[in-house]
Give the backbone structure.
Amino acid sequence: MKDKIEQLFNKNKGVLQLTPTWVPRAFNEPGRRLRLHPDDYYAYGMKRGGICERWLGSVTAALNGPDTEPEEGMSHVLCDRESKETLLFADVVEALGERLIGRELYEKYGTWPTFAKLYDYDKPLFHHLHLTEEKAERIGRHGKPEAYYFPRQYNAYMGRFPLTYFGFDSTVTKEEVLDCIRNYDKFDTRITELSRAYRIQLGTGWYTPAGVIHAPASVVTYEPQWNSDVNTIMENVTMGEVNPSNMLTDCIPEEDRNDIEKIFETIDWEESVRKDYKEKYFRKPVERKGSGEGMSENWVAYGNEWIAAKEVTLAPGCRAVLKDSACYCALVIQGYGTYGSFACEAPQMLRFGQFSADEFFVSEEAAKEGIVIQNNSCCEPLVILQNFANNNKEVPAT
C-alpha cells in the first residue's frame, strides 16, 4: 500500500483529492443544506439519526455511541474515480509523514492534528462545552478548541434560530449554574437564560476556546477544530427536545460522573463570563495582502494557538497561483475550474457515497511552491476555504 500512496502523491505533485465524509447525529435534525440529495439524509438508518455534518480532512473517528462505524468521520483519498478505489486518509498521513504535513507538525504531533467540518442543524444546538486538553486527557481524548465561519454560499436559509449563545452573562453566579447541573434530570432548567446570544452575521466568524459553554445557531457553519469530538451538554431541553443525562456525563471520567462540582469544573469560568467576550473572540475577515490579480484572500479564523482558516476568491475567467507556508485542507464552496492538476467544482446535489470534486489536501511543499487555480466560469467567482493547523506563520495574531 505504501508504494501506491507514494505513486499517487508523486503523480499529483503533493495534492490529494478527498471524498465526502458524512456524519449522522442522533440529536437535533438536519438543516438539509449540505448539498446532499433529499432522499439521503437518513442514509445511515433511522436509528442513527440524520446526516447533519460533513467532515473535511479528518483522521479522527466520530464519537457517536455504540453504533458508530469503525471509520465514521474519517476522510478517504480518491485513488481512481472509475474503479472507485479509495484509501483511508489517516493511513496516507501515516505513510507520508512529514512529506505531507511538514516536519514541524510531524515531530510535534505525529499526524495531521486538526480538521474542519460543515455542520448543518435546522434548530440551534444545545448549550455545551468542549473539554480543554487537560480535562480531555483524563478520558484519553484531545481537547477541542474551534472556530466558526458562516459562508453565504450555504446559508440562503439560516434555520429556525440564527443566534449563538456564548458563555454566561457576567452577573451570573457559579451557584446558579450548579443548580442547572444539579437539576438536569428533574425539570427544564432553561440554562440559556443565564447566557447571552449574538445574531449571526454571514461572512464573519468567532473563535471558541475549549471550556467555554456555547449553543451554536441554526446556521450552516464551517468549523476548523482540533482533532476531537468531545462534548459536555449542560442544557437538558433544547427547543422541546430532551437531551438525556448521559450527554452531560459521557465525557466525564466514570468516577466523577455523580460529582456535580467535578462536572462544573469542566467549564472555563473566567472565559465564559468575561465582559468583553465579543471584543476578544468575534472574527471579521482580515485581508491577506499581495494576492495575485483577480484573486482575494481573507483570513476568517485566526488569533489563537490552535487553528486557522482562509477564504480565497478568484474572479470569473481568472488564473492565479495560490501560495501558502503550510499544508492545508481545501474545500470549494462556489464555482468551478481547476485546482492544480484536478478539475474542481462546488456540488449542487450529491448522492450518499458519490464522489465530489470539491475537497483537496495540499502538502506543505506543494503549498509553498503554489497551486495554480483557474476559474472557468464566465459569471461566478471560484471560492475556496482552506483550514490550517497552528504552524502557518502568516496567520494574524489578532
Observations:
- The mean pLDDT is 97.
- The chain is about 15% helix and 30% strand.
